[in-house]
Amino acid sequence: MPGWFARLRERRERRIAQRRAIDDALWLEALATLPFVARLPAPDLAELRRLASLFLDEKEFSGAGGLEVTDAIAVRIAVQACLPVLRIGLQPYRSFVGIVVHPDEVVAPREVMDDDGIVHQYDEVLTGEAMGGGPLMLSWTDVRDAGESADWAYNVVIHEFAHVLDMADGSEPDGVPPLATLPERQRWLSLLEAEYATFCQWVDDGGDTVLDPYGAEGIDEFFAVAVEAFFVASEAMRAEHPELYELFAGYFRQDPASLNA
Ligand SMILES: [Zn+2]
Q1: What is the distance in A from the centroid of ligand 1 to the CA of 173?
Q2: E strand or H helix at 96, and its extent?
Q3: Which of 37, 45, 243, 253 is nearest to 157 (CA)?
Q4: How far is the C-alpha of 5 from the C-alpha of 13, rounded, in Å?
């Protein structure tokens, strides 16, 4: 039976990939703006293109704030979203369908209640947001500038999809993606917690970090900024966090720093 299922799925995916094939001009345009993708070997690029086609078929894009989501915009998002799951597949992304693209960052009104029961209102500036069950929000300006912002280890699409991976095991965001066994999960958590504690200390001390200091906000944010850096500033991330790099390389089954040689 599993063989039969697999063949059926393969056939279905092949049909979709053909129907939703990304045309050459859009594909080359996306690669030209994304150096951390363009450096992949040819077989990986072919698989990424196939996954991105399936992703485009499964997700529903909508524009907000007057933005029209063109094919070029959707492809640029799909390619970056699929990079982390190149060897994992789209399953962890299937908890939601909608992707809302804003022209630029969004100011979201927030409320928190303090220990005395007093409600404080403030504005939070968002370049992206991933919520359990979706939709996922992205700022086009930040998506568009991903090529340049890779220099400072910043990538909004990979950041938000790292949160999706984190939530894919059904837990609250805790920096742990779906793992097969409990010992794997425990090993992951103990390494991540140790790295997070060291990172928060660096940030507190005002030290320079490869990872976005925003990662000190919580262990889930630390995971997301570390995944961004792993894919777009790979060598620098490996130099600063060698053990975390190895952990990610095992999970994602990718070794992006080796591609820079
Ligand atoms: Zn985040």
Answers
A1: 10
A2: none
A3: 37
A4: 12
